Amino acid sequence: MKQFAVLGLGRFGSSLARTLYGLGHDVLALDEREDAVQNISESVTHAVQADATDESTLRSLGLRNFDVVIISIGSDIQASILVTLIVKELGVKYVVAKAQSELHAKVLYKIGADRVVLPERDMGLRVAHNLVSSNILDFIELSSDYGIIEIVALDGWKGKTLKELNMRGKYGVNIIAIKRDGEINVSPGAEDRILENDVLVVIGDNDDIARLENKA
Fold first, then answer.
1. What number of other Cβ atoms are within 10 A of residue 216's Cβ?
2. Is the full-model pTM beyond 0.70?
């Protein structure tokens, strides 16, 4: 289990916070708007109403002890840059910041952001799944119940056939493709064997996908 702090609860931040919490992680969500904090309070570990640009507030929350801090402040570019500077100075290990433009992203990288996201619509979900595990390359939500992930083959899977892996029996998910050396094997068969660095494209219920991610 990792500890995440999400600063700024617009659509992107809220989506990210809820998804991370749903995957079984500790999530602190912060926004200065009371309604945004109330809306998410049942869907995260802690919800705090505060100004993210207030250094003493961030210090008192113990942000430096979190694994990842995500700065998803809305359209206020100046605030986003200021908060990124503050959390880096507080000694946060890994800082993810949302940018409004390529230029904004460039500035955030220059002041120490470890990763900058230029979110497309509903991108929060993908980033959340990717942050939880380095093995998860992508996540696409098909509906509120189903999704697709791309996952790098785990050590225990290498050398085994799909039949031996029995992903459907163990996790309730189906492998719909295998990516290898730039080639894609669509609808692989039971006797197809998993090799090192293979990327599996997996479809399933979001709960089953979450269980698989926790293995990754």
1. 14
2. no
Residue 205 one-letter amino acid: D
pLDDT tens column, 70-88 = 999 977 899 999 999 999 9
The closest of 31, 89, 17 to 3, measured between CA atoms, is 17
Label the pairing between strands 146-152 and 136-141: antiparallel
User: 130-134: which pairs have CB atoms within 8 A and are 24 or more residues apart?
Assistant: 131/2, 131/4, 131/20, 131/68, 131/70, 131/96, 132/2, 132/20, 132/23, 132/25, 132/213, 132/216, 133/213, 133/216
For residue 122, what are the contacts with CB-CB under 8 A and spacing of at least 6? 15, 141
Q: What are the residues whose beta carbons fall under 8 Å from the beta carbon of 97, sequence distance 6 or more?
A: 70, 71, 72, 80, 84, 108, 113, 115, 116, 117
The full DSSP string for 28-70 is EEEES-HHHHHHHGGGSSEEEE--TT-HHHHHHTTGGGSSEEE
Strand-strand pairing, 199-205 and 146-152: antiparallel
